[in-house]
Here is the input.
Amino acid sequence: MTPTVQVCLVSDQAAANLLPALDPALKPREVVLLVSGKMKPRADALEAVLREAGVGTSRVDLADEHDYALLEAALLEVASERDGQSIALNVTGGTKLMALAAQAVAVAANWAVFYVDVDTDEVIWLAPAPHRQALGQQLRLRHYLGGYGFSLDEGIERPQREPRHDDLLRTLVTQVGSLEQPLAQLNWLAQQAEDRRSLQVTLSEQQADSRALDALLRNFQDAGALAVKDTTTLIFTSEADRDFVKGGWLERHVFQSVDALSRELGLRDKAANLVVRDASGVKNELDVAFLARNRLFVIECKTARMDRPEAPKANDTLFKLAEICRRVGGLGTRGLLVSYRGLRDEEKRLAAALRIELATGGELARLKEKIKNWVGR
Here is the structure.
């Protein structure tokens, strides 16, 4: 018989609490959250997700998670209030002392006890009879992010492949060296049009005479993203195409690479241009995000130069990505910076120190292999 109550030790890893509570075969009527002082925000987020899923919640705020006697007393009170009910203890989270106190009470109260292996999507039952049980529930981005207190501003975007872009994307990622300079010019032109809220921009005489830029414009024109009128007027087909020209094409290439690996890597959910907001209203934009092995993977995409005074610096981009990974998805979140341009050695060392993976320049043509190695580690 499935226990009707789950007792959970709240920690930084939301997946371990959400997976068994949302799984159809294990879903309880109520989840009791044991919450230390510093885990109150995490408990608030978990409660919101569980209630939305139709699971009742209650919480026990622990006065001192370092005092074994107090922990045991709080747990004994939970057992006394629910005497006669079928209860299962999830010992995956919390501190070691919390887990020890909870297990001692579970043995005395004859509770079932289990541990969640988020890497294998299994519940490992420790009592009454040790065995493993596969989880049927796979977390989606909305629930996962909700468990960390983040809501989605605009839903989930999963852009479909557009065959008209195939040849262009192939050219852009295989000819990085020769296209770097004209692409920087095109980025600047698209930004000028956006700043003026226009779909048109005029090329300078030097730009109009550039053979490299002309060849690049023809590639984008063949893909239906823009048109050139009278050799000097650049006309974007739509605002979406202007965004695509300005750098959205790289996000499209990255998302298509991730999408193509979904089955092979067992990806749970994926999205592009994901806008998330925390409880205080602060927004973060994730160019590409996906779940694998119940962990969040975040990819930042950059086509613009990062060595000009007016441009975002590579160091700033790396620090920002590292902070997003820390805040949005917990300790297990991983970040990858995909840059059309190479980085300097000192920037590569900073990325390594921040545990940010890099895919730059010529590596874009082998992005699928790069992502496979990154996720597999």
About this structure: The chain is about 45% helix and 25% strand. The chain has a mean pLDDT of 90.
